[in-house]
Specification:
Helices cover about 10% and strands about 40% of the residues. By secondary structure, it is mostly beta strands. It has a single domain (about 15-130), classed as Beta Barrel (Thrombin, subunit H). The longest helix is centred in the C-terminal third of the chain and has 14 residues, at about 110-125.
């Protein structure tokens, strides 16, 4: 069965960057499970994760926070306020069964958080002009 994709209007305002391997994020208080960051921008990020028993449908009344860290623990950025934009089941590969893709938008960041996010983008991403949307 072939699925037709709907055309959507591009809403991104910031350049996206592909993240280097071994860089992860967690969304709390929903889960203590880490997810693999796919791409990041000044405005938000996307990650793959395998859900546990936590709910994937999110109440807008819950304050959500994102924590970004590298496997070697040389970088850690905690408690970024976020809003979930989408959370969908991935369908690309058989091996991804049960894996989901969550896209989040950052809320109001402090100057320190903005500086750390810029450092993260400068040092933990692969800068590809092709990612410019």
């Amino acid at each position: 069965m072939t699925r037709k994709r709907r055309r959507t209007t591009e809403r991104r305002r910031h350049q996206r960057f592909k993240v280097q391997e071994d860089t992860f994020a967690m969304v709390t208080p929903l889960s203590a499970r880490r997810g693999e960051i796919l791409d990041v921008s000044k405005g938000g990020l996307a990650l793959h994760y395998v859900p546990g028993k936590e709910k994937t449908k999110i109440s807008i009344e819950i304050d959500l926070f994102l924590h970004i860290f590298s496997r070697d623990i040389n970088f850690c950025l905690l408690r970024l306020p976020i809003r979930t934009i989408s959370d969908v089941q991935t369908e690309d590969e058989v091996s991804d069964e049960g894996k989901r893709r969550r896209s989040v938008e950052f809320g109001a960041l402090s100057q320190g958080q903005e500086d750390q996010l810029k450092y993260f983008i400068d040092n933990y991403t692969i800068k590809l002009e092709a990612c410019r949307i």
